[in-house]
Amino acid sequence: MTEIRVPTLGESVTEATIGRWFKHAGDSVTVDEPLVELETDKVTIEVPAPAAGVLAEILVKDGETVAPGALLGQIKEGAGAPAKPAATLAAASPPAAKPAPPPPQPAPAPAAAKAAPADAPLAPSVRKLAAESGISASTVPGSGKDGRVTKGDMLDAIARAVQTPTPVAQPAAAVQARAPSPPDDAAREERVRMSRLRQTIARRLKEAQNTAAMLTTFNEVDMASVMALRAEYKDLFEKKHGVKLGFMGFFVRACVQALKDIPAVNAEIDGSDIVYKNYYHVGVAVGTEKGLVVPVVRDVDRLSLGETEKKIADFGRRARDGTLTLEEMQGGTFTISNGGVYGSLMSTPILNAPQSGILGMHKIQERPMIVEGAIKPRPMMYLALSYDHRIVDGREAVTFLVRVKELLEEPARLVLDL
To answer: Is 389 a catalytic residue?
Structure first.
């Protein structure tokens, strides 16, 4: 028998959910044929067959949570299949040689424990631990007199919370029980389990709102010059670089110039320190069927416009195919989101924590503008910069956005570094 195990999932990723099995027990498989899809917080991973043969058994069902190294199933190798010793597979897997524990059930211990009286006073040490850990004492089984929660009970609960991965790491306040629907309406409802990616998006966006002092400033940019430049050189650009000349490359380069002028927008808070990043890793938000992902173009200040467009096009294609790696979506210092491709005229983007700034692009729309004393139709776009007001002042945010506007309305400045 050859074991099928969860591969290493990437830095800081401790668990995954079984999305779906492509094969059933008893089906024949070939080497490297995709067997099962794993959903992590950031990407979807396909686990290939380590050997050819027959899928003898499936040990983890769809929707269950697994850790790196967990045993997913076994393959009975066929007579002509190239043998691959299980020992080799185990060595290639993470150090966890034994199967990971089954996914945690929703707090079985507290349910079976003796509940403390509703009005039972809590010891000061218990109240302090509950406040510091975020674990409500009402959910902890009490071992004291009359079921009261002791300091030892709280310490045990905190230790369990640290050691046990939770499928949904949302604050308790975010998990709300909905009121039951009338029977007529309930019969027409459809309940679908949230994917891990969608759960993570929800959690991170709410965390950003709860943590940062988020504010948004707006401006508008006349896109006529960029559109004229693009129309004049798009064919030559595509012939030379093998990729279409889009608008995103101009925005990325304009943002990098503005980040150099206003470094606070390229910084983040770490405890009581501000970390200013003297490098420019720009995340470009891409919408997919499973949710929003943000691949990162690293050291974009060192790339030409052609190299930048190639990176963006490649990331967009692989984001929709679900083949991005975790490393390609980590380490961003600033993010750009383009709601204009969906027709959005104006929005307030939410920060991609722990970053301190995100630029929202929107739909280009002709509007009457006064140009040199005359009313003329101009292709205008609203820009929105959401920023963390804890480290970015209003003056800096407005200056950043004006700088981006100037560079886009006079794209020669991007070339001349003016």
So the answer is: yes
